[in-house]
Amino acid sequence: MKITARHKIFAIAAVLAMAWQPVSAQDKPGEGKTIRFARSDSLGANYVQDVILIEGLKKLGYDVKMSTLGSTASMQAASQGDMDFVSDVNMPQQEASYVKLKDKLDLIGEGSIIGGGINGYYVDKKTAEAYNLTNVEQFKDPKIAALFDTNGDGKADMVNCDPGWRCGDVVDYQIEKFGLKDTVQTVRAKYEVLLAESFARAKRGEPMLIYTWSPSWVTDTLKPGEDAVWLPIPFDALPENVTAANGHLVNGVIGCAGGQDPCRMTTGSWNWMMAVNKDFINANPAVRKFVEVMRWPTSVWAEWETQLNKDSSDRALRKLGETWIAENQATFDGWVAEAAQ
Questions:
Q1: Could you tell me the sign of the dihedral formed by the alpha carbons of 128, 133, 136, 141, in that order?
Q2: Is residue 8 part of a domain?
Q3: For residue 50, what pLDDT is reported?
Q4: Domain enclosing residue 210, as ranges
Q5: Burial of 151 (0-12, 13-18, 19+ CB in 10 A)
Q6: Neighbouring-strand partners of residue 271
Q7: Would the pLDDT of 12 be above 50?
Q8: What is the CATH number of the domain that holds 214?
Q9: Tens-place pLDDT, residues 290-328
């Protein structure tokens, strides 16, 4: 058959049409593959992230089987090949568990929260200003400590993390290291219940002392610099195998007591990371890329935390994730397309 100019034009047009097909429509690198996915047993905005993460993995063709486990147990399972992907690993809080398994695991991405988060000791602004509180070390003074006594034993009662949460171990270590054991008692029970009591105290204008983090529903409710302030630590101190990668000094902390900048925070900055089995991630570069590009500003994270404090049901979690995707469809599709390439 004679090839005419018209035939050439049709051929070129057909090639161009195929070339311009969206990547997501023709390339699903996860097709036929299953990801054994573990989320942590610590509910928060990280669960909303997981909804979006899993939806993205499904768009890439993967079948995702999700379990809910403690971070330490899930990382152990992933290191043994019984799990592929572990989300919601809080670093540096979980560093002690990770370093034991790093020969078999990779941490991927730069962290879920753009710029990372902070954590530390948080007191109501009224009391901080009245007694010129600018450092947690001032709680060595029995008179200062007694201001925050809620059970009549003369010690300051500080709301701490749930039993079993690594953050609580860090707090208890620092309280001892800073010489505060005689004047400060940390209270470890169900965190949300303890906070309800603390919020009530603050609302009544009474002294409040808690350990908390940001972004979170706590700091979205009691605003740093308006309702409460962060008390810096006197010097760097962390338990074995917990490190502040970028140091404890954090620049630009809103609400650091006395306007200090930088502010010496409990563990410096922190972030939610993803831990994966090395063999799995080496065989699935699309998963690595999707995690690397999937990140959120602190304002989005804090809003999710606030909404979950009102309703943390599975239905509410899924709705928050699906709503974010619907309102940011172009961004989400771009992440999927970039990962697919």
A1: negative
A2: no
A3: 95
A4: 117-267
A5: exposed
A6: 91
A7: no
A8: 3.40.190.100
A9: 999 999 998 899 899 889 888 989 999 999 999 999 999
Tokens 């047993």 belong to 41
Of 44, 114, 25, 51, nearest to 324 by C-alpha is 51
Whether 1 maps to a domain, the answer reads: no
Both 260 and 284 in one domain: the answer is no
Query: Does the reported pTM lie above 0.70?
Result: yes
Q: In the numeric block, which tokens belong to residue 150?
A: 């809620």
Beta bridge partners of 86: 38, 275
**What is the C-alpha to C-alpha distance for residues 298 and 215, in angstroms, rounded to an integer?**
6
pLDDT single digits (tens) 148-180: 999 999 999 999 998 878 889 999 999 999 999
In 30-176 the beta strands, taken as DSSP E runs, fall at 34-39, 63-68, 85-91, 105-108, 117-124, 156-159
Is the CB of residue 210 less than 8 Å from the CB of residue 195?
Answer: yes
Q: Which two tokens stand for residue 133?
A: 């509180």
Structure-token match 């049709």, residue found: 10
